[in-house]
Amino acid sequence: MQKGMHLDRERCVRAVRSKDARFDGWFFTAVLTTRIYCRPSCPVVPPKAENMTFHPSAAACQQAGFRACKRCRPDTSPGSPEWNQRADLVARAMRLIADGVVDREGVPGLAARLGYSTRQVERQLFAELGAGPLALARAQRAQTARLLIETTPLPMAEIAFAAGFSSIRAFNDTVREVFALSPSGLRARAPRKQTPGTPGVLSLRLPFRAPLNPDNLFGHLAATAVPGVEEWRDGAYRRTLRLPYGHGIVALTPKPDHIACRLTLSDLRDLTVACSRCRRLLDLDADPVAVDGQLRTDPLLAPLIDKAPGRRVPRTVDAAEFAIRAVLGQQVSTAAARTHAARLVTAYGEPVDDPEGGLTHLFPAPEALAVLDPESLAMPRTRRTTFTTLVRQLADGTLHLGVESDWSEARTRLLALPGFGPWTVDVIAMRALGDPDAFLATDLGIRRAAQELGLPATPAALTARAAAWRPWRAYAVQYLWATDSHPINFLPV
To answer: I want to staple 243 with a disulfide (CB 3.0 to 4.6 A). Which of 43, 270, 383, 492 is the partner?
Structure first.
């Protein structure tokens, strides 16, 4: 699959005729005779090829006057893998739009974060996606509105503002235009719940492209969980979330064909952002077929992939938090890193109320950690300097890590900090910034796995061999790590 796939008409037609779910989110099919747009895997009888047109986004379909199919619900497709495997302007803009920046700060705020003019951002988004940032954000608001209408008993007025609409009228007009139903009609069509839900708790299904191997994904998150902030309970990974309008608690449970997501939010306006960050945490928009296909070309990696395909990269809901935890984990065991982090959480984290117990705090913000006494840190003096320099630069804005970060520029800035070597920078690039090609050639576990497989064991030679794995070297790291018996590679029992 490739950039601009919607332009390859013959390939798109084949995907629609075969109802291939792997292409969901890559492009959308608009039917000229019915004025409906669908995902490629729509279960209805495919239209004639001459009646199909193809668009790169749901927003482009909506702008062209098409409404969403009620059968396949194209707004529930996994997101395009393009935005998490690229670091150009369009990909960074799409990650910010998914994080709700346009709703909170407008298009000028989006452009300012990217360092470009508003006109240039709009031009590039329209050229590639057939829609500008306002239309893309509107499509996202429509999806959030549908989710709240169908899964909660909230009054429509509350849903309108929770989904990011500025008025009830805009909410009503958008729902009718996109779904060809009024909000109340959309609710009437929703399946009735057999049991009433818990007030204030939203239960959602997060889709993904199969296959998905949950072992290393949830195993890593559970094994490194910071007490008070994260836990593994009853088959679910739970953690607290710092969000733009408040805070939340999420429970994520792996299922065969989706991730069950249970969200408790202090402010419903954070729903879109919370879902986006959970998808990013679990790397749910990845294209495992493309990733595994590339890595299988190495005969020494192929057996690992055939044994357990679909490994994802465990990421994070907060890039600054992960960078701080990466420093805490330098040259110590997983248990020691958790202990260091737990002490900071108790002393500087913001308390939250968890109805289920177990979670007590948000992870401390850099601003809170910037005022701590370095002598209170139970670590060598050089690492204290590394830690305090990092949190100070994060707090004052000298260093910014987020979904919009330019990966190359962020690497350069991190390497300039005292105590930051290639391992720390690349693990932050891989898990916090989302670079799918980050590679930990100096990692002891990677070198040990390489040696056992017959791959070069020295960092330079292994890096040279890994050039054939690009642009998916971060996924190769997951397969190599999985050869070890460390708890990060197994679902907790």
So the answer is: 270
